[in-house]
Amino acid sequence: MNPSRFSIIPFTQNLADDFKNINQAWIEKYFEVEAEDLRVLNDPKKYLIDTGGHILFVYDNETQQMVAACALKKWADDEYELSKMGVIEGYQGTGIGQALAEAIIEEAKQRGCKRLFLESNRKLTPAMNLYQKLGFKEFVNHESRVDYSRCDIVMEMFL
Known about the structure:
Helices cover about 35% and strands about 30% of the residues. By secondary structure, the chain is an alpha+beta fold. It has a single domain (about 5-159), classed as 3-Layer(aba) Sandwich (Aminopeptidase). A seven-stranded mixed β-sheet has the order 1-2-3-4-5-7-6. The chain is globular. Keywords: Acyltransferase, Transferase. This is N-acetyltransferase domain-containing protein. InterPro entries: Acyl_CoA_acyltransferase, Bact_Acetyltransf, GNAT_dom.
């Protein structure tokens, strides 16, 4: 990711629609948008920010648009979930996702996170490869925290 072209910026309320649009695009492409998706995407401030989480975006300074988003959802003082990570079409495979994930992992560390986990689907091969590259390992004996029918894998890392 070219730091002169792209900036990583935190959530502000005026970016709520960008968060929804970036995530809804990938969910609709591969799955179906579920009730829990709509709850979070329609009010990320209430369900992520106000509960102790964080959202980061990647902004393309050339095109002046948000091109990626990722959330950090707080479950406990030392446990967070990497959630709702999406990169818009045309920017995938450019390293933006990795840079964004690394920034969200760093944010989790600064917040005292000891265990960071995510729930995903094995058919999202590029995402699976990225998570493994970042150091996430499959958590075999798991129970899903969020009831998304699309999730067939839980991965975790210890910070």
